[in-house]
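Re: the multi-chain job from yesterday

Posting the exact lines I submitted so nobody has to dig through the queue logs.
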Amino acid sequence: DGGITQSPKYLFRKEGQNVTLSCEQNLNHDAMYWYRQDPGQGLRLIYYSQIVNDFQKGDIAEGYSVSREKKESFPLTVTSAQKNPTAFYLCASSSRPLGAFFGQGTRLTVV
Amino acid sequence: EDQVTQSPEALRLQEGESSSLNCSYTVSGLRGLFWYRQDPGKGPEFLFTLYSAGEEKEKERLKATLTKKESFLHITAPKPEDSATYLCAVQEESGGYQKVTFGIGTKLQVIP
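And the result, structure tokens for all chains:
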């Protein structure tokens, strides 16, 4: 089946630790996105990539990093510089003129 | 500042009681407006894309409409399985990038 796969579903991070969230798509979409969702707030854009080997910062990129070495993959690293990382992270991909299609999310908790 | 405002924040309906959700937006050049459904702990599920004022889209009990300043998601004779958070998002051209801004959503509860 075509779709977007995020893993893991749940992730726990210790203070000062970097963690990487996986996002893979087999929809052949060029554009991929990472969003963060917090209670009572709309989805906020962390990073986006429109083509392989290129990506741009979104509205809340500080403390995060990404790579786009393959069209299918867009992993997100939450670094120790991100002071409030506990959130629900959503990966999406899109191909014009349709809207974005989302994965099932990764819930990250700092322990 | 570009904004997407959804109302109400929460809505409780009896099964079969039709209603509408609102999404108002202020963007400089709308490229598309999207509606999503999100169940707790899951990613948003794409419902509709609207591109121009006057456009309408339907899917089962849902109908989305668009004007120059707002969109409505009409729910006709809802069922308990329609309970979810409904998100609205607008897309605009910004520096060569198709920027998408989300509202905070309307949490719908349909009571049997």
